[in-house]
Amino acid sequence: MSPPALLHLGSVARRALLLCVPLLAGCSAEVPGEPVGTSQQADTCATGTTLEGVDVSVYDGTVDWAQVKASGGAFGIAKATEGATLEDSEFPTNWPAMKSAGIVRSAYHFFHCSSDPSTQATFFLGVMGALEPGDLPPSLDFEDTTTCTASTGISMAIQWLDAVASATGTLPILYTSVNVLSNFQNTQSLAGHAQLWVASRGVTCPDLPAPFTAWSFWQYSLTGTAPGLPNSNGMADLDEFNGDTSVLLGLTVGGSPADAGSDSGPPACTAGGVAGTCIDTSVCAAMPGYVSTPDVCPGPATEQCCTRTGDASSGGTGDAGSSPRGDGGGAEDAGETDGAADGPADHGSNPSSGSCGCSTSLGGATTGTSVLLVALLLAGCVASSRRGRLGTPFRR
């Protein structure tokens, strides 16, 4: 595929992707005894505009984000950390450079079950730093089927997701695939804890792992060529966002739910003159500084108008302490090629070493109701990264 049209490397069909219409499922309980290997959903196409982007790690070299932007890239997802000690050596360069180039950015963490989830979350938050207006929620690369067991992997991932949600006031992005989640029990318990960044390649429309019924991001290729990525040469991770620019910005810190469109999630509402969103009362109850008001929303009795009652402070970022820099890469479906259907790629993994709560401030700056509520619209989506594909040994 030739470089002239960066991020236009997908076929027209690839670009026909649905606006992300995640279903807010709240914090569903784990399903006892859920059999392993039953997590595939039918492929889900988009019907509206989609945007192109890339996910990167140290393996991509020093990225020219201005060139990525000029070539049509709208967003970028950069590896920040892995496990409890490894920092991607290019992240300190990628993170500010994306912002400077006008790329909507997210940072991702490669998860290992060999380290405590809370420790990993604290480490990641410390490396990433405080989110700023216009930043996407953080992403979790969940594809390690070596250290994560069938019975405990999902609950450990949820611990990380909830810790990051609480610290940032956003709904994190989860990178995974049908192939990966088929190795785990209790996948239904992921509902309400993350939005989906799905790895699904060699298909016209992505296959979704249960419990997700919609996607925000789709990693559709591990073998692209992207202007601005010096080491791509047919090895770039290419992604699409399920929506147009206004929808993408609506998911960011400071974004407005109105940007997401009338069919993109739970309806808006007003209670006592305060704008809110109609969501399940159990979800609203888990959000510090928010309250549910009945008899306002058109849905079932369990969905009430969730509005903010006042400023709630957040821990912002965790204190990561000092840690050695590593050269971890981006996610890719271990052992899969571009022709394989599902399975995240180990975004350049290097071996290292459940409640739905979220606060309402980011890095000390109080966020508006819109940030939290927009995030809550997205309970159905996944996360992707770079080099080392799921299902086979990770590339170093």
Word description of this protein:
This protein has 396 residues and is of the alpha/beta class. The strands form 4 sheets. An 8-stranded mixed beta barrel has the order 2-3-5-6-7-8-10-11. A 4-stranded antiparallel sheet has the order 12-13-15-14. Helix 3 (117-128) runs parallel beside helix 4 (153-168). The longest helix is centred in the middle third of the chain and has 16 residues, at 153-168. 61% of the residues are buried. Helix content is 17%, strand content 22%. The chain has 8 helices and 18 strands.
Question: Which key terms come to mind for this protein?
Answer:
8-stranded mixed barrel; 17% helix; 4-stranded antiparallel β-sheet; disordered N terminus; 18 strands; disordered C terminus; 396 residues; alpha/beta
Radius of gyration: 19 Å
Shape: globular
The proportion of strand residues reads 15-25%
Q: Residue-averaged pLDDT, rounded?
A: 73
Low-confidence stretches: 1-34, 257-265, 311-341, 350-396
Query: Which bin fits the share of residues in helices?
Result: 10-25%
Number of strands: 18
Number of H/I helices: 8
Outline:
Helix content is 17%, strand content 22%.
